[in-house]
Every structure is written in C-alpha cells, then in structure tokens.
Prior knowledge:
The structure holds 2 protein chains of 2 kinds. Chain A is mainly α. Chain A contains 3 helices and no strands. The two termini of chain A are about 20 Å apart. The mean pLDDT of chain A is about 90. The mean pLDDT of chain B is about 95. In chain B, the strands form 4 sheets. In chain B, strands 1, 2, 8, 9, 10, 11, 17 and 18 form an 8-stranded mixed beta sheet that branches. An 8-stranded mixed beta sheet of chain B has the order 6-5-13-14-15-12-16-19. Chain B is about 30% helix and about 25% strand. In chain B, helix 8 (about 320-340) packs antiparallel against helix 9. Chain B has 4 domains: about 25-85 and about 110-190 and about 290-370, 3-Layer(bba) Sandwich (FAD/NAD(P)-binding domain); about 195-290, D-Amino Acid Oxidase, Chain A, domain 2, CATH 3.30.9; about 375-400; about 440-560, Glutaredoxin, CATH 3.40.30.10. Chains A and B meet through helix 1 of A and strand 6, helix 10 and helix 11 of B. Flavin-adenine dinucleotide binds next to helix 1, strand 9 and helix 8 of chain B. Chain B: One of its GO terms (biological process) is 3-(3-hydroxy)phenylpropionate catabolic process.
Amino acid sequence: MSTPAAPPEHIEHAEFAWRTLSEALDSVPESDREGFLLRLALLAALDHLDAGTLTELVAEARTR
Amino acid sequence: MYFTPHRHGFTPFASSPPDAAPEPVVIVGAGPVGLALALGLARRGVVVTVLESGDSVSYGSRAICLSRHSLEVLERLGVGERFAERSLPWTSGRSFHRDTEVLSFAMPHEDGDVRAPMVNISQSEAEQILVDEIEATDHCTARWRCRVLDCTERDDHVGVRVETPEGSRELRARWVIAADGARSTVRESLVLRMSGTSYEGRYVIADIHWRAPLPTERRVWFDPPSNPGSTIILHRQPADIWRVDYQLGPDDDPEVETTEERIRERITRHLDWLGNTEPWTLEWSSLYRAHSSSLDSYLHGRVLFAGDAAHLVPIFGVRGLNSGLEDADTLAWTLSSVVHGTAGPELLRTYAAERRAAWRQYVDQAEKSTLFMTPGTHGYAMTRDAVLTLANRRPVLRELINPRQSGATHSRTSPLTVGATEDEPRSLVPGDPVPDHAVRVAAGGARTSGLNAERGPDLAVLALDSEPEALADKVAALRARLAPGVGVRGLATSREAARVHGAALPETTLLDDSAETLARALDADFGEVFVIRPAGLLLGRFPDLEHLGRCDALADHVLRGGSR
Ligand SMILES: Cc1cc2nc3c(=O)[nH]c(=O)nc-3n(C[C@H](O)[C@H](O)[C@H](O)COP(=O)(O)OP(=O)(O)OC[C@H]3O[C@@H](n4cnc5c(N)ncnc54)[C@H](O)[C@@H]3O)c2cc1C
C-alpha cells in the first residue's frame, strides 16, 4: 500500500499522542501501569465516546 | 576484501618558520567533511593543508545514504559524475511489522528533478573519490600519518602540534578547521564539550556480500519472525554489498552478539526467512549507539568546527554526513571570503550560528526517528508496538513509522536571509534550499543541464524573463565586490524562443524556459529575481531587478553575514 500523506495537523496530533502517552506511561510506577491506562481509557470513554463507538473500539483494540 | 583502501605514505615537511606568514588554512581530519571543505576552499583559490592521522580513507560501513542535496554539493565540487557512476539511486521504502507490510513510502521525486532523492554509496568509496580529486587539485595538500596533538590560539594565528613518523612538527595557521570527527582532538585540546542526549538501544551493523534479487529500497522489519523482538534494516549498496542493521535487546550481551558466529546466525535466520537461496559472506561488522549532541558554538577564536567534530545526530534518517557536507559547503565560501580579505571574520559567526540552528532542525527530526527505531523506555516500546499493530487501520499512524529521510536544512531565520517582502505564502521562501531542476541552456547550441550545475559554486542571480543586459550589469557590479572569495553568475530565463536563440551575453547564461517549468518549480512570477547563495540557499527573492537595490549594499550585506 503506498501511503498517501495525511494532513499535517493529523500527523502532528498522532505524534503528540505517541509521545505524550509514551512519556506518561514512563512516568507512572511500574505497578500502576495497567491502572493508569485503564483510568485514561475510562476518562476518554466518558468524555468522548458513546456506547457504540466504545464497543467498536474495544473490539478493534483486541486484535493484536 | 570488499573495499581495498589505497595506503598513502608520509611526505616529509618542516615546521612553519617563525618569521614566515602563517598558512592560510589547516584542516584537521581527512574524513568526508574535511575533504569536501578542502576542495571547496581550493576551488576558490585558498591554499589549504589537510592533516590526517591515518594513512587511508576510512574502512567499514558508516554513511551509506547520501541525500539529493549532498549530491548537489558534490556536483559543485566537481565530483558529481563520479558519485553518480558509483552509487545506487533509490526513492522508496517498505516497513513490516512481523510479516505484515505497514508502510510503503516514496520520497518526493518529480518531473524535472535532476537526480533521485537518495543514493547509496559506501563512505569509503565516497572519501576515495574526494581524495583522488584533491590529488588532482591545485592549492590543496593532504598530509597522511600526521596526528594533531593539540592547538594553541596565539595573537594572529593558531599553533598546531603534529606528530609525524619523523617526529613532531608545529604548523602555524591563520584558521584551523576541526573536522576530526566525533572524538575530536582539537575539541579536547580547547577544553570544549558537546552536550546532548545518548539514546538507549544498540544496533549491530554488518555489511554482507549477497547477490539478492531485492530492489534498491529501504526495508525495515519490526519484530520479524526471524528475530522476534528485534528491528532489522536492510539497504542495498553498489557491488552486491548489503548493509544489515539490527537492534539488540536490553538483555543481549554486546560482547557475545558481536562475535562473527552470532552475527552470521542472526542474519542467516533473517535471510532464510526471506526465502534466500543465495550464498552470502560477512564482510564487516560493528556496534552502534545513537547520540544527539553539539557544541554550543562552532567558532572559537580562529578555530572552526565542522561535521562530527561539531555535532552528532543519530543514524536513523541518515543525517550525519549529509549535515557535515552542508557545513563544508557553507564554510567554504564564508571562510574563503575571509581569507581573501573581501569579508571580515564576522561572516564566520554567521556560519557558526546557521549551522548550529541546522543541527537543531536535524535533531528535531532525528529524535522522532530514533525514539521509534530504538525506543529506549518501556513507554516508548509499548506505544511503538501499538502504533505498528494499528497502522493498517489508522493510516495516520504510518507517518510515525516513516523514517523521515534526511533533506536539506533551511536558514530562514539567519541574518543573511533577506525576508520575504510580500504576504502571499510561497512554497520557496528566503532561507530555503533552492531545489535543483532540469534546465535548457540556450546559448552556444542548446543543451540540457541542471540549475545546480549552471549556478556552480558561485552566488547566482537568477532573473526570470527579465532583461539579460540589465542582469549582466548587476552581476558585474556584485562580482567586483565579492570575488575572488565568492564568484557571481547571472542566469536569465526567457519564454521567447526568438530571444533565447539570440546572441550569448558575456556575464549571463541564458536559459530557455519556454515551457515555464523552471518558473513553476520555483513558484515564481515572471520578472522575479532570485539571489541564490553559493551553498544553494535562497538569499532573497525580489519582484524585479530594480528591487534588488544597490549592488554595493547587497554585497555588504553578504560579506558582513547579514544585517544584525
Ligand atoms: C554506523 C554508522 C552509520 C552511518 N550512516 C550514515 C548515513 O547513512 N548517512 C549519513 O549522512 N551519515 C551516516 N553516518 C554518519 C557519518 O559517518 C559521519 O557523520 C561522518 O563520517 C562525519 O564525517 P567527518 O568528516 O565529520 O568525520 P569522520 O568521518 O569521523 O572523519 C574524521 C577524520 O579525522 C581524522 N582524525 C581524527 N583525529 C585526528 C587527529 N588528532 N589528527 C588528524 N586526524 C584526525 C580521522 O582519522 C578521520 O579520518 C553514520 C555513522 C555511523 C557510525
């Protein structure tokens, strides 16, 4: 698949998400990594996702 | 042996006599940056001595990818054809996560481009081409087996102590250029430190001889079934040499992992997994760790720094040598102006500031590539794996996998750059590198050429569709002030066939742009004038020749390193 360039603002956002999440994950104690990610996902779900979208994203994230 | 370096003997020489004038320029280090700078200075009539501790060019795999911009620099040094003959051009790459393709990228390559965005050539070959050229060039002497011990700043010169096979010597030089690489002795002797970041993660780098049916493109495998958890990069070089870089895990013992047996085992697993049936041989290997660091300034009294002696960038995205060649290109014309006395030493402050800012631009890009290629922390490793897993479902994530291959840096905020005078945004703004473009030279029997070749190593005034006679006057006036440190050339384009086939003008080259392709490539209006610096950056763009103003003022601006 040849990759059409995404709009710059989308790329910037993807970069921001990648770096912010990486650094946030590094900043929590090892024992709390799972808890931290779950709290983050819960906050994102409550603030930004309806039930349908959340269900879809859960299914998508299951695929590795 | 896959590369047989030519051994150079020591040529005896005496210390500089105390009552004689110091040598104009001594360059420490005959790496690619020192060699390119020596050629750039010698071409401008500056007498230059290069001191090299070794007796040959480097051996083993280092820089293999040169950018289009670097090839332009090399063309202006007169070695472009030899690089073109001996290198492999490429434009694209693919990345895989386990066994699934997650990225296919193509670097920009458009109609009218003179060369591919990237070529592969071994650094040893590249250095040998430069050495051969230096041997055939006046004003320039490379002295092998001369290890610089230290440098001492004196009133009007620098004392350089050199260890030679016949004992120590002291040279006196007006200007010393430290191009002696990452472990610079000159830097150490001046007690200067680089500061920056060292990244976690080590890579084994190996060159193999392999007749493979794969195309010349960059291939990367993240977590491949052949070597789970590792990242493997594959690049083709000329003469059936392939460069394999692979990442070691945090628990791998580098001593064990760099044994020949272990390297063969890892590479065999990967090539077998690719379905290889061809025999291959391991030619060379080494261990690499990424660093981003720089001196605060590249100018210390009469000593200037260039290349790895001044700054380091991680290899991912191939910026090391490419940035060093930009240093050499900028330093050649600025230092030559100072040595010839047309400019004062303040011009060198502009070199130092511009190149330090360029390192910042490189590092901003290289840092992202490096965090992705060798995520040093748990957080970066986890997100990297998540990005790779999701990349085919969320295409924007592929941008994070893209290696951001090196391009040329800009000097938009340099004091030398004459700011844009209009509000309309343009794709090429002052301070940007002017892209090379195919052109038709009209006079002397039409022929195809490139803008870069026609500009040569000089400052160029390119006038689109304006009066060649008026341009010739401007060129003559600028040349009167800037030469011999910097040459000046005029390039005039015309859309009218009748005019372009007319008589040749002494000061300008006439370009046939009846198809308007050059004007489009430069995003230019007719009548517009582009002043292009010797190293290829756009000094400024002006609506017409009159807006260029007085040539004396423009020349002063250039020679002072801009308005401060
Ligand atoms: C594994 C690896 C892969 C790389 N891949 C790429 C790539 O694909 N693209 C890219 O652009 N860059 C790449 N680089 C970076 C590139 O190799 C360097 O940036 C480049 O060699 C810098 O050139 P230089 O002339 O500044 O220094 P060097 O090449 O290090 O040359 C310095 C010279 O100075 C000499 N010297 C040192 N001390 C003294 C002394 N005291 N007296 C006299 N002489 C001395 C040395 O012998 C040497 O010849 C890579 C580097 C590595 C290590």
